[in-house]
Amino acid sequence: MKSLIKLKFYLKRIYRLSLSPEKQEKLIWNDLKKLHIEAEWKHGIYEKDKYIETVFEIHEGQGEIFYFMIYDSFFHCRVKILEDYPVELTTELFILATHFNNLLNFGVVMVNVNSNYIEYHQKRDLLIPLLYTGEIHDQIIRHFNISKDIYSAFQRLVKEQEAPAIIIADIIRKNEKEGDGSE
User: What is the CATH number of domain 21-180?
Assistant: First the structure.
């Protein structure tokens, strides 16, 4: 019985790999929609443009719109971390974004100076979610968890005028404590 399940799983992967890139994108798009519906997340599906808007609580009582898209053979996750930031903090915002980008294994923090917002964007080659359907969920959760830390950091910078180096040092210390199980 176990070998039958493994065979079925293997054949499903082979089938998915044999599809054209357009059909692979469509398949992953359907997996993404199915995940949102089954998880019962508050979301909107925009079929024509192939993206989903989902509202997650990024901080206590603060919801943000997360965007999930399939295009250019990648699965994209985006969220605006800070909208309409104070222009006088632009240098510090760039410094904090650079610190994050040096530490992040997944994604990039971008400062859009034309529209005054900060965004966190992850993208992943479609091959991984094509072969492992659970990877879509894992990437969404990974993106969400990292977004919460980035959001908190930029809020500290803007609201408390905390120095970027101190903010990053606190995040590193927190992650080290979580990594070794100490509190």
Answer: 3.30.1460.10
